[in-house]
Amino acid sequence: xxxxxxxxxxxxxxxxxxxxxxxxxxxxxxxxxxxxxxxxxxxxxxxxxxxxxxxxxxxxxxxxxxxxxxxxxxxxxxxxxxxxxxxxxxxxxxxxxxxxxxxxxxxxxxxxxxxxxxxxxxxxxxxxxxxxxxxxxxxxxxxxxxxxxxxxxxxxxxxxxxxxxxxxxxxxxxxxxxxxxxxxxxxxxxxxxxxxxxxxxxxxxxxxxxxxxxxxxxxxxxxxxxxxxxxxxxxxxxxxxxxxxxxxxxxxxxxxxxxxxxxxxxxxxxxxxxxxxxxxxxxxxxxxxxxxxxxxxxxxxxxxxxxxxxxxxxxxxxxxxxxxxxxxxxxxxxxxxxxxxxxxxxxxxxxxxxxxxxxxxxxxxxxxxxxxxxxxxxxxxxxxxxxxxxxxxxxxxxxxxxxxxxxxxxxxxxxxxx
Length: 418
Description:
By secondary structure, this protein is of the alpha+beta class. Helices cover 47% and strands 22% of the residues. It has helices at 4-18, 55-103, 106-116, 146-153, 256-282, 304-318, 324-341, 356-372, 376-387, 393-415; strands spanning 20-33, 45-52, 160-161, 166-173, 177-178, 182-194, 197-213, 216-221, 227-231, 240-243, 285-298. The strands form three sheets. A five-stranded mixed beta sheet has the order 3-2-4-8-9.
């Protein structure tokens, strides 16, 4: 029997023992983002309010409406009081005219009619019944429960809600605006098949379309009313287009419910947007981050240490904002294990336990751990090492995203004196 098949079998078994399959798992965790413009001297408290630039105009229009209604009611009551007098005057006048008419001879009446060419029989004056004038209510911009809105949407992470020695955080609503909704139509070709015969028909679909916006501005000031932030974001002044789902049935022309829904949605959306801007500048914003971590799936638990480090890192990242001590312990354990594992790295041997692919995966895992722990110096060393490796296009893009993230983190640490 030839020894070569035996050697081939040994080779295949050896390869199987060393073969590894790198898997990626998506993870979303929260971290505390440092502010880009920290408040100096440091302030611990804040209070938030919402006002509207149009409330004064609403009040003016409402007051005018009430005054017009009162005037119309006063006019009606006065006319009602005068009505019996006017009716009596008309009755008296008619009675006198009829009395004079009846005193005239038939010949006189006929002669007057011929000379005047008209029927000169007395006619009672018409006295119209009084009526209340209808006063149309004004079109007002929506008023809200401003304290509840502020409590729900305006929060500065890392600060306490209190009035003493506090930042004042105020958002001013400019009011919801929209164009007149219109029903539009579009013709689509549809194919139906009956008895293996295809038929194409033109079908009309209807939808509602309009534009809308809800501009807002925000001001944050210190306890001495010195302005720290003032923003009137251009993004909120741009009109957005609403287009409903198309349907074969023409929609109702009563758009009130649709407009109300849009107004509520954009109010929440814009307040959330503004709150993020404020937190990005001065808050310690609890920020969600979505990324992926790699682990190695291999036979015979050949990469159990990599899996253990991966599990520690997962636990650490998910604990970052809820249990800082546990997060630090787990992330440090993962980094220590990754560092030890990388001592076996062999970039040239594809059969090595820690080959090039595993090495690169571990480096990216370490970058995520360093980002979570704000260790930019250590991350720079790994980025420099990765720059020396032959990375795939996907890995290059991954590295570029980390470069952007660490540049932003480095800038934020600098302005916070870290």
